Automatic annotation (TrEMBL), chain A:
This is Branched-chain amino acid ABC transporter permease. InterPro entries: ABC_transp_permease, BCAA_transport_permease. It is a multi-pass membrane protein. GO terms for molecular function: transmembrane transporter activity. GO terms for biological process: amino acid transport. PANTHER family: ABC TRANSPORTER PERMEASE PROTEIN, BRANCHED-CHAIN AMINO ACID TRANSPORT SYSTEM PERMEASE PROTEIN LIVH. Its main location: membrane. The keyword Isomerase does not apply.
UniProtKB/TrEMBL annotation, chain B:
Residues 5-236 form the ABC transporter domain. Belongs to the ABC transporter superfamily. PANTHER family: HIGH-AFFINITY BRANCHED-CHAIN AMINO ACID TRANSPORT ATP-BINDING PROTEIN LIVF (PTHR43820). Pfam families: ABC_tran (PF00005). This is ABC transporter ATP-binding protein. GO terms for molecular function: ATP binding; ATP hydrolysis activity; branched-chain amino acid transmembrane transporter activity. It comes from the Bacteria. CDD domains: ABC_TM1139_LivF_branched. InterPro entries: AAA+_ATPase, ABC_transporter-like_ATP-bd, ABC_transporter-like_CS, BCAA_Transport_ATP-bd_LivF, P-loop_NTPase. Keywords: Amino-acid transport, ATP-binding, Nucleotide-binding, Transport. GO terms for biological process: L-amino acid transport.
Length: 293, 238
């Protein structure tokens, strides 16, 4: 039993990371209806910025603040320069643009920092919390704590601030949002900046567990897609719940289903995506598109 | 300072399709102006041009300030509230959030006063503040749209077919409230309406729009008495 709980806890730790990237995906999807395939690569790039700051001698937490600020500005800039020109274009066009951004950012990171793996400092202390035969590493606790904090901050932003209300208005009815005086373009850029910031958090969390290299977010992105699909692409709460479920499912399948093991684990999110799309396309928390006229 | 709305030689359309071919009229401060006309005459396009939703040439001024060429959010900040076709409800948001969005460009304690004022005009909304706006009935959503527009403290209120899809009783109630608002707040109103009777009932001036041109203008009483209008839009002969 303790072994099972142990696996669940580890699954939650991994799931929290998927949740944070899924949160970034959902933020952009809500505002623009765009599924940003480059989200993972942007997170990876942000992580390199953090690494560079630390390598230059900055203390970790200061480096994190700088990284988040740069990511926010970078996200807004990408919306302005790359996404704005294709706003309103057919979905496929926008998908191709974000895939292009994926390749570009990946190559740029390789060009600047090479494809050699780098060690990334773990901001959380080593060791673990032991109780009832279960050990939870401080690193896992830290990851869960950070994701909970990000979720909480976003909740406060959206529910209790004027800007957050404006952002939700733009997400639900941009034409009407314009009519009440909201600057929609600025709000969309803000959404991209916010998503890039949240994505940067996931990159910085994942880097110490894997190694830092340009392709490190590839796998995480697939899990994040599964998480967002499961939770519902239009629900931030769903994204987080979906991330945790995917993390736990992946870990348990790896540990208890013999033929899956650690090699086939990557297949789990794909099975989840397929299952959700067949059974409940809007996801657990998503809104099906029916409304009273 | 007068806040007359002056529109002259307004030309607007979508892409290559020109819908308005030089529309000119003036609405005096505090008056209600009705725009009548058949489907496809360009009534909705006219309102959209006024609020900046479609690009327009010509000039539009409100109290001397030019509205032409400004995007809708800038026009809104100048005090123009547009209740669009389809009501523009923010469906998943609560009724209260919808109302607060109406005052998005304003801050301070006056927003709370205005919420109170909207509750007085529309007691039904007060009972549903925490409910998702998408769950309201059509009539309630139209009241919400009007309430949201009032939250801007508009100098100019643009109403697009407020009667559309509503029961006659609800429509009459709505027009009664529009008249009250106009009288109490001195808000200038431009109302586009298929139901000519109701619109003329609250308007001082009226214009008949046909295929993008004003074909007839006059006081509401004159238009009401016009034989041709009577045949075309009122459904009876004078």
């Amino acid at each position: 039993m303790a072994g099972f709980v142990q696996q669940v806890v580890e699954g939650l730790g991994a799931g929290a990371i998927y949740a944070s990237l899924a949160l970034a995906l959902v933020l952009i999807y809500q505002f623009t209806g765009i599924v940003n395939f480059a989200q993972g690569e942007l997170a990876m790039f942000s992580t390199y910025i953090a690494w560079q700051c630390v390598a230059a001698g900055m203390p970790f937490w200061l480096a994190l603040v700088v990284t988040l600020a740069v990511s926010f500005a970078g996200g807004m800039l990408i919306e302005r320069v790359i996404i704005r020109p294709v706003e309103g274009a057919p979905e496929l066009t926008i998908v191709i643009v974000t895939v292009g951004l994926f390749i570009f950012v990946n190559a740029a990171a390789g060009w600047i920092w090479t494809f050699l793996i780098k060690d990334f400092p773990n901001p959380f202390p080593g060791g673990a919390l032991e109780a009832a035969g279960i050990s939870v590493s401080f690193s896992t606790l830290g990851v869960l704590g950070v994701v909970a904090l990000v979720m909480g901050l976003l909740y406060v932003l959206f529910q209790y601030t004027r800007i957050g209300l404006g952002m939700r208005a733009v997400a639900t009815n941009p034409a009407s949002a314009r009519l009440v005086g909201i600057r929609v373009g600025r709000t969309l850029a803000l959404g991209w900046g916010l998503a890039a910031t949240v994505g940067a958090v996931s990159g910085v969390l994942v880097a110490p567990l894997l190694f830092l290299e340009p392709n490190m977010m590839g796998g995480v992105l697939i899990y994040a897609f599964a998480a967002a699909t499961l939770g519902g692409f239009d629900s931030p709460l769903g994204a987080v719940t979906g991330g945790l479920i995917v993390g736990v499912a992946e870990t348990l399948a790896g540990a208890y289903v013999g033929f899956i093991g650690s090699d086939l684990k990557v297949g789990v999110p794909l099975v989840i995506i397929l299952g959700v799309l067949l059974l409940r396309p809007q996801g657990l928390f998503g809104r099906a598109a029916v409304e009273r006229a | 300072m007068s806040t007359d709305l002056v529109v002259s030689d307004l030309v607007a359309g979508y892409g290559d399709a020109q819908v308005l071919h030089g529309v000119s009229f003036t609405v005096r401060e505090g008056e209600v102006c009705a725009i009548l006309g058949p489907n496809g005459a360009g009534k909705t396009t006219l309102l959209r041009a006024l609020s900046g939703m479609v690009k327009a040439r010509g000039t539009i001024t409100l109290g001397g300030a030019a509205l032409t060429g400004r995007p809708p959010d800038a026009v809104a900040r100048l005090g123009v509230a547009h209740v669009p076709e389809g009501r523009g409800t923010f469906m998943p948001l609560t009724v209260e959030e919808n109302l607060r969005l109406g005052a998005y460009v304003r801050r301070g304690p006056s927003v709370e006063e205005d919420l109170e004022r909207v509750h007085q005009y529309f007691p039904v909304l007060k009972k549903r503040l925490k409910q998702a706006a998408g769950s309201l009935s059509g009539g309630e959503q139209q009241m919400l749209a009007l309430g949201r527009a009032l939250m801007l403290r508009p100098r100019l209120l643009l109403l697009d077919e407020p009667s559309l899809g509503l029961a006659p009783l609800v429509t009459r109630e709505l027009f009664r409230i529009v008249r009250t608002i106009n009288e109490e707040e001195r808000t200038t109103v431009v109302v586009v309406e298929q139901n000519a009777h109701l619109a003329l009932g609250i308007a001082q001036q009226a214009h008949v729009l046909e295929t993008g041109r004003i074909v007839l203008s006059g006081t509401a009483a004159q238009i009401q008495a016009d034989e041709q209008v009577a045949q075309s839009y009122l459904g009876y002969r004078v």
